[in-house]
Specification:
Arc Repressor Mutant, subunit A; Rossmann fold; 47% helix; 3-stranded antiparallel sheet; 223 residues; alpha/beta
């Protein structure tokens, strides 16, 4: 990459709609461009082999394996964008090489901020030899200022998050993840991740729906 060329980004997500949304967010940030999207680990490795990639945005839930393995298999830098919020999973991702970890759903502003920080990180580590001050500044560039819980609530303003929230709000009765997915045209797994994030943010409530047989199903409603 020369000084005038944008940083190239590979977007990896099991849901092609979400991958497209993330790609559009990347392309909206000055100095970045999406060179490929992939919905499986195998497709991501193939895309990375056929194009020069500076940064990969990786979902951990992929149909042909964990994103942790993909992190280790790619030679480029990487961020994790995942609904997995378990501490051990975060540590595994960092250990595998993730420079940042964004928990879905997140705001477009947060991703843009992380990308700009990454651009600064690249500038600070671009020299053949760097001193300790540059190393400290490079790591600091990857970090975002701490935010309080109230500041995290607008995470529903992602495109998919808004669609999920609107579907539940418009329904006269509680909805399951499968029902939400059918209404807005995403997979059940994707709907489930956003619903979980909305519950964590306090924008939705979850309870169990018990049927005649089988395990109970989670359903969601407005508080």
């Amino acid at each position: 990459m020369t000084a005038c060329e944008p940083l190239s980004v590979l977007v990896v997500d099991d849901d092609f709609r979400v991958a497209g949304i993330h790609a559009s967010l990347v392309d909206a940030v000055s100095g970045f461009r999406t060179v490929a999207t992939a919905n499986t680990a195998a497709a991501a490795l193939q895309a990375a082999g056929g194009a020069s990639v500076d940064l990969a945005l990786i979902d951990l839930y992929l149909p042909d394996g964990s994103g942790i393995g993909l992190l280790r298999g790619l030679e480029c830098d990487a961020f994790v964008l995942s609904a997995a919020a378990e501490g051990p999973m975060v540590r595994r991702a960092v250990s595998a090489g993730a420079l940042a970890y964004l928990v879905k759903p997140f705001t477009p502003e947060l991703l843009a901020e992380k990308l700009r920080g990454y651009a600064r990180f690249r500038q600070l580590t671009g020299a053949e030899i760097v001193d300790q001050g540059a190393v400290e500044s490079a790591y600091a560039a990857l970090r975002s200022p701490p935010v309080n819980r109230a500041a995290r609530r607008p995470a529903a303003r992602t495109v998919t998050g808004e669609a999920v929230l609107s579907a539940v709000r418009s329904s006269a009765s509680p909805l399951s993840a499968g029902e939400v997915g059918s209404l807005i045209g995403v997979s059940r797994a994707t709907a489930q991740r956003y619903l979980a994030g909305l519950v964590t943010s306090g924008l939705l409530r979850m309870k169990l729906r018990y049927g005649a047989t089988g395990r109970p199903e989670q359903e969601y409603r407005i508080p």
